[in-house]
Design goal:
By secondary structure, the chain is of the alpha/beta class. The protein has 2 helices and 8 strands.
Length: 125
Amino acid sequence: MITRLLHTRYRVTDLEKTSAFYRDVLGLKEVNRHKSPRGSTLVFFKAPDSDETIEICHYPASGPVVVQPDLTHIAFAVKDLDAFAKAAAAKGYPLSDGPHGSGNHRFAFIDGPDGYEIELIEDKE
């Protein structure tokens, strides 16, 4: 029986560019980095208030990474969507969609270096 979610994996083209995005734009903490038995490089990131991690995988032997539109996304809670959007844009990553909603519930999207969508959700309740 499954007891909890441990991590989600995304394969990427440029490990260092993607690692910088997750660290410097999203504000996640790198918690582990190692080589897998198959030879891929794996980097794990964690949000401050989460137990689950995101595994970023660099494995050139599997070919180029091609992320089609609306394939998948992960979602993060943010305290201030406008402040996040301003800081991300200043680092070269403007929002790709939104903000949408109003009042206490707003959301937007930002795209990572390979085109993976990341949803940002602000809930002020």
